[in-house]
Amino acid sequence: MRNRGKTEEERIVRTNREEEAYRDSVPALLFWYDYNARILPWREDPTPYHVWISEIMLQQTRVEAVRAYYERFLAELPDVRAVAEASEDRLVKLWEGLGYYSRVRNIAKAARVLCEKYDDRLPADYMLLRDLPGIGDYTAGAIASIAFGIPVPAVDGNVLRVFARVTGYREDIRSDRFKKHVAEQLRTAILKYAEENKEDVSGECSGGDAGRGGPASGAARISSAPGRFNQAIMDVGATVCIPNGKPHCDKCPLSHLCAAFSEGLTAEIPAKKAEKARPVEKRTVLLLCSGERVLLRRRPAKGLLAGMWEFPGISGHATYAGAKQAAAAILAETAERADPGDTAGDGTAGSPLSRTELRAKRLPDSRHVFSHAEWDMRGYRIDIPGKAAERIARASEKNAETAATGSAEYLWASAREIREEHGVASAFRVYREYLPKEQK
Q1: Lowest mean pLDDT among 14-23, 58-67, 110-119, 405-414
Q2: Which one of 97, 173, 223, 255 has the largest count of C-beta atoms within 10 Å of its C-beta?
């Protein structure tokens, strides 16, 4: 019985210490953030729209990579209404290179909902935000706390890693149980801080100034505390309690609370699970060139790179002969789609374009890594003989209008049009260097 009693006593002590660590982390992080916050463009004017766009862009993407995309996106689409009215091709083009293109499609879906139901504005309500397409618990928490000052947590991988180390959690931090536990503890800690400090100030202030850096004071300090706290954890996780490499514990505002630091376990916490090897798919990429134009193909509406433009190709690594044969088949298909009944592939029915007429040049191999797969690519540039130019010109005219509506399956485009108008998946970045040169 004594051993059981001692075990229970130890559990209570651990629980109390953990709750104290969460509670004490709030003022510690707020003070640190006042003087160490990263200067980021979306923090300069943290309107709900700005916070929303930046948080979606930052999912699975480095901060430095997002800066230019964020500024370009806002320059062209400054508000919710502009996003709702933009074409899908334009949205994808603005997103080109960020990857995970379902994110921008969900932004468009959510923008249309906001226009229909919320007068072009994001609602100041966590649950209503959570119901919008593409917005999960973390993003809803980030928008609610940063833009509106609502005391809710925003729990992502950075937050889980930081508090696994602070509390000495040795199991898998990706488990739903741990995520829920951290969210509940942080929600309690944020609410307690706001409750204990609300009597120290008078008046009310929105969370609009959260994240500007420099000490806040009075009502502004308390109303912006949820957003500043969540951004503080983001910054600590990104710059101090880092995921790869040795954490900078000497610079951490939570080191005095941290179990992993005091016990010398920062290299072991969080626990690392062996990742499954990504499947590797061999592909042959074909740059089918006619004059100044190259053929694009739209990928299926669902699945990897859904709805994106790509350079056509086939599975496996083709030889020269195999590449030219595949190219001839693709050209025949495009001719039939552009002009039903013309099965020639060169605009002259009954006289199919022979693969021997095509000129093939081997391009560099390339490899692209997705989150759950890899493409091992072999490239060929296929130049089409002049006698097919007339058919291709006709095809370009016919598919120009359908491409604008997002319904074209194939599209002949110039390098300029690809650069300015059509979003080609970044997996094919290497092969864009070999597009036909435009005549000046």
Answers
A1: 405-414
A2: 223
Q: Residue 384 — pLDDT band, cuts 50, 70, 90?
A: confident
Q: Tens digit of pLDDT for each residue in 268-285?
A: 999 877 778 889 999 999
Does 286 share its domain with 249?
no
Quote helix, strand, coil % in the chain, to nearest 5.
55, 10, 35
Cβ-based neighbour number of residue 276 at 10 Å? 7
Same domain, 31 and 96: yes
- C-beta of residue 143 within 8 angstroms of C-beta of residue 52: yes
d(CA 440, CA 436): 12
Q: Determine whether 63 is exposed, middle or buried from the number of CB atoms within 10 Å of its CB (0-12, 13-18, 19+).
A: middle
In a domain, 437, yes or no: no
| 55 labelled catalytic | yes
Which pLDDT score, from 0 to 100, does residue 89 have? Answer: 87
Q: Reduced to 3 states, what is the DSSP secondary structure of residue 29?
A: helix
Beta-strand relationship, 313-315 and 309-310: unpaired
Q: Which of 327, 345, 328 is nearest to 336 (CA)?
A: 345
11 or 436: whose pLDDT is higher? 436
319 shares its domain with 409: yes
d(CA 166, CA 262): 9
- Report how far apart, in Å, the C-alpha atoms of 16 and of each of 20, 167, 193 are: 6, 11, 17
pLDDT digits (tens, 9 = 90+) for 41-72: 999 999 999 999 999 999 988 899 999 999 99
Q: Which of 10, 44, 55, 374 is catalytic?
A: 55
| 439: in domain | no
